[in-house]
Amino acid sequence: MMQKTFHQNFDIVYSACKKALKSLGMNIEYDNMRNGSMSASTQSSIWSWGESIDISVSKDKGKILVKVKSDHKAQLFDLGGKNEKNEENILNEVAKILNK
């Protein structure tokens, strides 16, 4: 799991998370702004059965904390570091969207 803190308001950061997932080609499967959570998935490929992504957006001491967790859908091991790459890509894309 990776996390990053942002200084914009909750609604803007939450919206940026949704845009980031779509921008990265991930399918949003669950979206609950009220409790600050969403889930998405990636497509399967020759290298993976796909990954499940969980995002939590919460207020933390006047800032907004985004936590991203990526897990393989059916594989036991993350041999290529795909989960970590997903988490990093999502947080970087959220930051990029917020800095436009």
Question: What do you see in this structure?
Answer:
The structure is a single chain. 31% of the residues lie in helices and 36% in strands. With 100 residues, it is of the alpha+beta class. The protein has one domain: Alpha-D-Glucose-1,6-Bisphosphate, Chain A, domain 4 (2-Layer Sandwich). A hairpin with a 2-residue loop joins strand 4 and strand 5.
N-to-C CA distance: 26 Å
Q: Output the number of helix runs.
A: 2
Assess the beta-strand content as a share of residues.
Answer: 35-45%
Shape: elongated
Rounded mean pLDDT score: 91
Query: Which fold name fills CATH's third level, the topology?
Result: Alpha-D-Glucose-1,6-Bisphosphate, Chain A, domain 4
Got a strand count? Answer: 5
CATH architecture: 2-Layer Sandwich
Please give the domain count.
1
| Unreliable sequence segments | none
| Strand line-up in the sheet with most strands | 1-5-4-3-2
**For the record, what CATH class applies?**
Alpha Beta
List the helices and strands and how they pair.
Elements: E1 2-6, H1 10-23, E2 27-32, E3 37-41, E4 51-60, E5 63-72, H2 82-98
Helix pairs in contact: 1-2
